[in-house]
């Protein structure tokens, strides 16, 4: 079964800074390549962007989303960009973040930022989140509320709020402008259009998050005192059940270490994965050589993954493999060839022998365990990756 993700070719358009644009597969990659060739890649520096508006606000659009480790994911950024792109000069875009947020709200298009650090995406508190959203709506009286239509909390929150407030709502929105929204219905055989409702749940990839402007980015101190109510409520959080990363499906893994042709000592690689608490992936070459089973293969002919951290040891980065990791948040490549294709995709490239790097990391982990006198895994995946990328 082909599980390769791609943009729905029937999607009518995406809204961008230049207006409505028909989606054509491959355009983004070609444009990026031309920009790299023209401006020399990293040497190119973006010019400062103007403020979207400096007019006195007459109305508000509210965007709500959960943060993950201090940042908004692509879907949330697209939703915020959608609100900013259709806002007129007298409309203020307010971003409500559930969880800690350390990003640049202005660069994402927000005029005001309200951060609720008491909410953690890993904690299930639907009643408290609904109360917080309702309180924010009461305070700012937005004409429209935008949320990403995802399965990680935002889509559920948007539906709960629309039901509680008896508000008009549109879900799985794939087309949006200042006057209307549209979505597929009847198993994608029909297209439904309606005027912009009070609550908009936006589908992924309906909006280009790249903006030609910035917002005011004002951080607002806003107090919410309802976070203790769930203890007496009908919903009880049973917590998250931790499982061995090796038993996790690659499509669900948040941290993956992947081996290519440059990895010769598979047991040492597997020890490192266990130390880091990471799931194991592999390139097609490594699988074809019999080093790993077929279910570990990542790429166009294998698994498409969306890990927050993806470390590739000894993988050159054929186009099929890059297709499989296109949705990963941070990619770290360990390769002797600085001009390997994966180096252009990676956020950080370590020019070194993959096998020697694995051995050095295993030795460092063993030394750290000895120094601390514990056999527990000492390397936290998020700290390792984000510290390296800082």
From TrEMBL:
One of the GO BP terms on file: fatty acid beta-oxidation using acyl-CoA dehydrogenase
Domain Electron transfer flavoprotein alpha/beta-subunit N-terminal, residue spans: 61-216
Organism ancestry: Bacteria, Pseudomonadati, Pseudomonadota, Betaproteobacteria, Burkholderiales
Protein name: Electron transfer flavoprotein alpha-subunit
Keywords: Electron transport, Transport
Gene3D superfamilies: HUPs, TPP-binding domain
Origin: domain of life: Bacteria
Family: Belongs to the ETF alpha-subunit/FixB family.
Record domain Electron transfer flavoprotein alpha subunit C-terminal: where: 250-326
One Gene Ontology term of the molecular function aspect: flavin adenine dinucleotide binding
InterPro entries the record matches: DHS-like_NAD/FAD-binding_dom, ETF_a/b_N, ETF_a/FixB, ETF_asu_C, Rossmann-like_a/b/a_fold
């Amino acid at each position: 079964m082909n599980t390769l993700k791609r943009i729905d070719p029937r999607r009518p358009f995406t809204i961008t800074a230049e207006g409505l644009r028909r989606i054509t597969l491959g355009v983004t990659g070609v444009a990026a390549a031309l920009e790299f060739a023209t401006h020399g890649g990293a040497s190119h520096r973006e010019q400062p962007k103007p403020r979207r508006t400096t007019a006195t606000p007459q109305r508000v659009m509210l965007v709500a989303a959960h943060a993950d480790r201090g940042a908004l994911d692509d879907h949330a950024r697209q939703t915020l960009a959608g609100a900013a792109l259709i806002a007129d000069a007298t409309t203020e875009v307010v971003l409500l973040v559930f969880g800690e947020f350390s990003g640049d709200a202005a660069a994402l298009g927000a005029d005001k930022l309200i951060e609720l650090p008491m909410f953690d995406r890993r904690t299930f508190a639907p009643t408290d989140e609904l109360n917080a959203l309702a309180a924010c709506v009461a305070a700012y009286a937005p004409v429209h509320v935008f949320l990403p239509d995802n399965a990680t909390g935002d889509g559920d929150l948007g539906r709960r709020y629309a039901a509680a407030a008896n508000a008009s709502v549109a879900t799985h929105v794939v087309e949006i402008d200042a006057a209307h929204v549209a979505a597929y219905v009847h198993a994608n055989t029909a297209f439904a259009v309606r005027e912009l409702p009070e609550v908009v749940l936006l589908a992924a990839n309906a909006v280009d998050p790249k903006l030609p402007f910035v917002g005011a980015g004002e951080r607002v101190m806003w107090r919410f005192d309802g976070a203790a109510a769930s203890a007496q409520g009908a919903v009880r959080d049973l917590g998250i059940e931790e499982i061995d990363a090796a038993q996790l499906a690659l499509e669900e893994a948040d941290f993956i270490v992947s081996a290519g042709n440059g990895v010769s000592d598979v047991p040492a690689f597997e020890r490192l994965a266990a130390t880091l608490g990471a799931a194991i992936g592999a390139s097609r070459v490594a699988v074809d050589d019999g080093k790993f089973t077929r279910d570990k293969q990542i790429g166009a002919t294998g698994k498409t993954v969306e890990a927050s951290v993806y470390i590739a040891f000894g993988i050159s980065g054929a186009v099929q493999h890059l297709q499989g990791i296109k949705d990963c948040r941070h990619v770290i490549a360990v390769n002797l060839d600085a001009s390997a294709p994966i180096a252009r995709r990676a956020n950080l490239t370590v020019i070194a022998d993959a096998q020697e790097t694995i051995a050095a990391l295993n030795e460092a982990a063993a030394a750290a365990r000895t120094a601390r006198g514990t056999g527990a895994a000492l390397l936290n995946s998020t700290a390792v990756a984000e510290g390296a990328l800082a």
